[in-house]
Amino acid sequence: MARAAAHxxxxxxxxxxxxxxxxxxxxxxxxxxxxxxxxxxxxxHGVEITVPRLRKIFAELxxxxxxxxxxxxxxxxAPAIAEALERPLPVxxxxxxxxxxxxxxxxxxxxxxxxxxxxxxxxxAEPALLYSQVPDYPQVAALAIKEMFxxxxxxQFDDAGLLQSGVLIRHLVLPGNLSNTYQVIDWxxxxxxxxxxxxxxxxxxxxxxxxHKFPELQQTLTKEEYAKAEACLLATGWEDGxxxxxxxxxxxxxxxxxxxxxx
Length: 263
Hints:
Blueprint: E1 3-7, H1 12-15, E2 20-24, H2 38-41, H3 51-63, E3 69-72, H4 78-84, E4 93-97, H5 103-108, E5 115-118, H6 125-132, H7 137-152, E6 156-157, E7 163-172, H8 178-191, E8 198-202, H9 223-235, E9 241-244
Parallel strand pairs: 2-3, 3-4, 4-5, 5-7, 7-8, 8-9
Antiparallel strand pairs: 1-2, 6-7
Helix pairs in contact: 3-4, 8-9
């Protein structure tokens, strides 16, 4: 792990007023060339901890007032996480992942996760292969998200507007890849109905990492590109979720992976 602390960079229904109790795990099931968190996802910065320590970290974040426990990049530690969650927590547990999940892994966690927060990065195989080396991403993530919905059902808020149960699907619009975004929106509206899942259309893309082979990714998303993506979504009539303008981009949103809350 690399960090465990209150985090204020999620959607309002996750962040709330006191922040989400974000637990940042080292490593990732993908190798995205543009990853903002590549220090931990690809260079594995962090320290080893035990399952009892993980359970204690959850308790410490709850004691600090976190609205939920937000497991960031948890996939490859699912068995340890399942063990740490043997006893229910007093706040929802958020599974914050890339979407590239196996159904068997998700079923290991059934009943222990209240909120699923997956990406649906790609609906097309070409960018999935080019940017993340996983051409089967569209099919794998689609099955995973459907399993998440099977487990949790339609989303539910509390009286304060905080998400207590359900699925919130994220999609980061990539520069020069609007065709992929259009297909993601088609997939969303063809597979879910209003009131079932939330959708977050994200414009915060920030160039990170070694992108010399990918000139289209060396710039932030333009307002025009995001406006087209937004127009595509709104044309479907979809209203359940969030819009994030390109002004949200920037390295200042990346937390310090300084082992805060871990040791």
